[in-house]
Design goal:
This protein is of the alpha/beta class and 237 residues long. It contains 6 helices and 10 strands; from the N terminus they run βββαββαβαααβαβββ.
Amino acid sequence: MASGERILAMEGLSKVYRLGDVEVVALKNIQLELQARLFVVILGPSGSGKSTLLNILGGLDVPTTGKLHYFDHDLTAASERELTRFRREHVGFVFQFYNLIPSLTALENVALVTEIAEHPMQPAHALDLVGLKERMHFFPSQLSGGEQQRVAIARAIAKQPDLLLCDEPTGALDYGTGRVVLEAIERINRELGTTTIVITHNAPIAGIADLVIRLSGGEIVEKSWNPRKASPAEIRW
């Protein structure tokens, strides 16, 4: 996939939730195009619409109005079966909580994903990419929080997705551990060229992004390019 090739296009995306007679507007008229191989950070406080937008981009939710295109495919016109296939073949998810299976080793947790992927990498290679080559036969209970999160990243990238979507990946971690996790995510973007989107409320993390999107009240209030990306080691929060 070439740099500069459009991978996602959002046209007037809005999301409204109904709670009885009350309407909650989570997103308002999102207009945005994202190119392949970018590292994007979406910033905003709780309730700004970050997770809603990430869920729509990953095919976990659908907008109330507007269009979302993945390359030339209109995801807003896709069936649930087509969205499931999109998630399985093209998207890797990393959440704040690791969701590992306790009875399986790190290697076995990653291998579960590769069994259903079209063109997976070897599970051991995925773990090596996140710095866990020596820990692949350990169970989650034998790993630190940061190591478990890196297993979750390895699991997400093992199917070689076009998109890596990360929802507050350092939210449950201390500074030092979070920096190691960010280094793993940045390495995946840099070495594999995986288009990466990270949502966070920690503004300093934006320093490692190519593109920073700020949300407030469900709207994009700022979009800025980083002329000089920082390395994760330079980030303080």
